[in-house]
Amino acid sequence: MSELRELYQEMILDHGREPRNFGRPEGANREAHGDNPLCGDQIDIYVRFEDGVVKDVGFEGRGCAISQASASMMTEILMGKTEGEFKALFDSFHDLVAGSDAAAGAVDEDALDKLMVLAGVRQFPMRVKCATLAWHTMNAALDEGGDHVTTE
Amino acid sequence: MTAATQADTAQRNWQGRNSLDVERVRADFPILAREVNGKPLTFLDSAASAQKPRQVIDTVRGVYETEYANIHRGVYFLSERATANFEAARGKVQRFLNAADVSEIVFTRGGTESINLVASSWGGRFVKEGDEIVLSIMEHHSNIVPWQLLAERTGAVIKVAPIADDGSFLLDEYEKLLSPRTKIVAVTHASNALGTITPVKEIIRLAHAQGAKVLLDGCQGAVHAPVDVQDLDVDFYVITGHKLYGPSGTGALYGKKDLLDAMPPYQGGGEMILRVSFDKTEYNVVPHKFEAGTPNIAGSIGLGAAIDYVSELGIDRIAAHEAEILAYAYERIAEIDNITLYGTAPEKASILSFQVEGVHPHDVGTVLDQEGVAVRAGHHCAQPVMDRFGITGTTRASFGAYNTHADVDRLVAALAKVRELFG
Ligand SMILES: Cc1ncc(COP(=O)(O)O)c(C=O)c1O
Questions:
Q1: Tell me, what's the ipTM?
Q2: Of the N and C termini of chain B, which has fewer Cβ atoms inside 10 Å?
Q3: Which fold, A2-147?
Q4: Residue B394 above 50 pLDDT?
């Protein structure tokens, strides 16, 4: 069970059961919808983006423990971040869960530390998309106007 | 219905005839000897695609090693042999479905292509604006989207037959949808998501009474029940090779001769023509009219071998064995807390679709995989029926000729691990 425990750490189960920032925040001005056609999971990300900074962010949707925890933790970490900071974190996070070590730009080490609990996903290649759906959707939300993304 | 009362129902419905020697069957499937994640493979995903017996594997290898060439073309020995073997496989499909004539069997790439062929060719010619197409809510996407494309092109209207909470097909409700406007009814013989076996004879009789044609998607049905297209009087019947223990990328369409004759070609190319000139091209006769290009020669011959294989085991005996395993699964899964079953119709194939309360099917699937248990997790390409139950997906264990009581025990033990991990 050790790889499984690694994947489903208590922190992930906790975020999965009680997602933080669930719902649409007041004054949201950016949003995007994401689909994982493989499993039918869906997510909506809402952002209040002002003065180049994420002032508030929330999400709605249904998904597995990995995707819910990833979305929940992402929203916590992104409060107060700029678009550039988000992109750098996204790159690092992607490398973390996909198991590649491409050098990313400067990232917030504290934030990345928190995301380390999702590193167990790299042992489960079929689940990488679950972990990254929220991030892809956030990326689309921040790209002017918002969009519709899928993991395929 | 709870798992426990369902166990009773399934037990009652099982006819008690189980002479399948499952250990001998297992020995025919080389892949079942392997391990996954350090555990013996417990393969419970035959409804997605079944494993292949040595008889099929050897046949396909034999074609390539000793009798391969393109068919219907060469004048030399090997081409003659390959053509004869390919056409012999067509004959096996004909006998398997009890079609009246071998020309009523069109080889395709599988279920999806068979349905697209009918929707595109028959539908393109005979379906007009305002005509109605009746589907059921538990169709696989491949028996929905081709009809939606047709409806978009022609202005036809799609009507959807509902199901009961246990997944049973509702004949009364279905009958209400039928009218002289109904052009075709396209429903599954057995649902891949719920297992429900539909009352096909009644479905066909009621449709014909309104002058409508009927296509049965037998991708799942033909695996679990004998099919006699003449007795059913069905207009089109679809099978796929890979769920029938045959190669992937193979399948067939049965169509009544007069219907196939009246249909335009589906794809253009070699093989489907008699003569080509830039003034006028004459099409070949059925079934060749629908078989443009070089087909899956070895695969289709392998499908013939798969049909020989299941016929030798006996579809009835396979079905009885699977029913016994399903009944046992109902009984055992009742031991796990907070399981919700989806699809508990009295008439059903060996499919156990369920949710573990509070745990997403994907997470269930990952934990089971670590125990060597392969199941399908998700919407099973049947999103409308998932919506019908207000869920996004289920975990699905499906049982084939080679599954045993021990497989069910391993599934249940793995589910206990899910509970342990997720609380
Ligand atoms: C009921 C049903 N219809 C159609 C299909 C599609 O068949 P194929 O995969 O051969 O295209 C499947 C399975 O994939 C199925 O379960």
A1: 0.85
A2: C
A3: Sufe protein. Chain: A (3.90.1010)
A4: yes
